[in-house]
């Protein structure tokens, strides 16, 4: 209990003025928690406001199309969060008559909601005494109590959850949970924590043993997969192109240009001999140019994508019917969006006269 009181005292004096702290509306809290999964607060705030402006209630979100949701989410990454958010909104509206689940056991049944998110919503909105355990909490508990259990193993997750529940101020779970998370974010930071001014420094195990940098413990990361993407950016004489919706994978239901994935970096002559390229253009005359001299590297959690954008100018075809002026209306991965922001269609138009 002393541990909790110290954290709460610190929190009430040092907490950030974040927009979702001004409400206990479960829809707003749920939205903020989903956005903040694997996203920095500084980046998440603008998306939080954009979503509430576009979809002020869960009914508005449920009525939206998936493409609208994905487009608004564009740039945040981990797009399964957006798909799950939309799916759960429709479930709550259609199956629960718009009544937001009010207990941990009900909340955790929602698609995309795990232990942490269910605990956060249950405690903040409904004062249910269930402890949150996120990256910040792992770090605070591991360092303060000297816990060596790996936080990315089932045994470690269970141990930390049990300890967090034991430490919880059950009369004030909302403030306690927010306090320990904020403490981890601002004071007990991953790198260069402010141990000299930490209110818990007299009793912190890691500080006393000079092992702050060693905690928390994680088992070795999964091997990073390398992939080579060759995007075919088509530009016809009537200023049209082709984009395709991805059916599977991390970018499911987002749009991209026709893709040739290879085992290694390829050059122009290898590209035009590829089966997919031949099927796209058949007997059409084409002009091929590489947009960037250097291969672009797009790093994701478990894979690194080495991308090339090949600009292919060609004649008019019924297979290429997307006007260039509407391409940016489609939800696309950040890799495609970054390319589109640099790509000047007016410069390409002039190539037809050369």
What's the SSE blueprint?
Layout: H1 2-14, H2 26-36, H3 41-54, H4 58-63, H5 66-73, H6 80-95, H7 104-107, H8 115-126, H9 135-145, H10 154-167, H11 173-186, H12 205-208, E1 225-236, E2 240-241, E3 244-245, E4 255-256, E5 259-262, H13 268-273, H14 275-281, E6 286-290, E7 296-299, E8 303-314, E9 322-323, H15 334-342, H16 345-349
Parallel strand pairs: 1-8
Antiparallel strand pairs: 1-5, 2-9, 3-4, 6-8, 7-8
Structural class, by secondary structure, is alpha+beta
Beta-sheet strand percentage?
5-15%
How does the overall form come out from the CA principal axes?
elongated
Integer tally of domains: 2
CATH architecture of the largest domain, please?
A: Orthogonal Bundle
The percentage helix is 40-55%
- Write the element-wise H/E pattern from the N-terminal end onward: HHHHHHHHHHHHEEEEEHHEEEEHH
Tally of separate helices: 16
In this structure, how is the largest beta sheet organized? 5 strands, mixed
Mean pLDDT reading: 94
Query: How many β strands by DSSP?
Result: 9
What is the CATH H-level superfamily of the largest domain? Hypothetical protein, domain 2
End-to-end distance: 77 Å
Q: Which ranges are low-confidence, i.e. pLDDT below 50, for 5 or more consecutive residues? A: none
According to CATH, the fold-level topology of the largest domain is Endonuclease III, domain 1
Q: Cα-atom Rg, whole angstroms?
A: 25 Å
Task: Using the coordinates above, name the CATH class of the largest domain.
Answer: Mainly Alpha
């Amino acid at each position: 209990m002393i541990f909790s009181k110290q954290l709460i005292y610190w929190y009430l004096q040092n907490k950030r003025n974040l927009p979702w702290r001004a409400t206990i509306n479960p829809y707003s809290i749920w939205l903020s928690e989903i956005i903040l999964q694997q996203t920095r607060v500084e980046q998440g705030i603008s998306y939080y406001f954009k979503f509430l402006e576009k979809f002020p209630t869960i009914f508005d979100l449920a009525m939206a199309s998936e493409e609208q949701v994905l487009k608004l989410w564009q740039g945040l990454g981990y797009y399964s969060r957006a798909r799950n958010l939309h799916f759960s909104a429709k479930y709550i509206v259609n199956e629960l008559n718009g009544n937001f689940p009010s207990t941990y056991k009900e909340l955790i049944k929602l698609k995309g909601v795990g232990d942490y998110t269910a605990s956060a919503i249950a405690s903040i909105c409904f004062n249910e005494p269930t402890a949150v355990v996120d990256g910040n909490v792992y770090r605070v508990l591991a360092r303060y109590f000297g816990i060596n259990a790996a936080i990315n193993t089932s045994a470690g997750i269970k141990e930390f959850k049990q300890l967090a529940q034991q430490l919880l101020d059950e009369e004030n779970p909302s403030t306690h949970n927010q306090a320990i998370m904020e403490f981890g974010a601002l004071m007990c930071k991953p790198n260069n924590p402010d141990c000299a001014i930490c209110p818990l420094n007299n009793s912190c195990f890691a500080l006393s043993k000079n092992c702050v940098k060693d905690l928390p413990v994680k088992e070795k990361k999964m091997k990073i997969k390398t992939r080579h993407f060759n995007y075919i950016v088509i530009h016809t004489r009537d200023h049209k192109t082709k984009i395709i919706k991805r059916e599977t994978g991390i970018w499911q239901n987002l749009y991209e240009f026709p893709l040739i994935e290879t085992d290694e970096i390829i050059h122009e002559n290898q590209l035009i001999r590829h089966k997919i390229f031949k099927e796209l253009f058949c007997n059409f005359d084409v002009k091929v140019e590489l947009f960037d001299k250097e291969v672009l590297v797009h790093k994701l959690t478990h894979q690194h994508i080495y991308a090339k954008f090949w600009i292919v100018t060609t004649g008019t075809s019924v297979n290429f019917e997307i006007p260039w002026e509407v391409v940016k209306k489609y939800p696309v991965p950040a890799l495609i969006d970054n390319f589109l922001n640099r790509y000047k269609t007016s410069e390409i138009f002039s190539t037809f006269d050369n």
